[in-house]
Specification:
The protein is mainly beta. The chain has 1 helix and 5 strands; from the N terminus they run αβββββ. Bound molecules: zinc ion. Zinc ion binds next to loops.
Length: 62
Amino acid sequence: MTKGTAARGKRTSQRTHMQCRRCGNRSYHKRKGQCAYCGFPAPKLRRYSWQTKNFNNRRRID
Ligand SMILES: [Zn+2]
C-alpha cells in the first residue's frame, strides 16, 4: 500500500465543490465562488449550445 495512488488517493477528501444555492447541484466551487453548472453569482444561467442536441429543428431546453 505504498506504491502508486497512495498520495493521490487523499485528494478525494478535499471538497472543491459544494451544493449550489441556485441549481442544487454539487457544483458550487468554494474557492472560486462560482457554480460550474449554472454559473451561480452571475445573474444569467450558464448555458451553451453544445449542451443539447437539435430536436425537430429546435433547441431542446434541458
Ligand atoms: Zn448552480
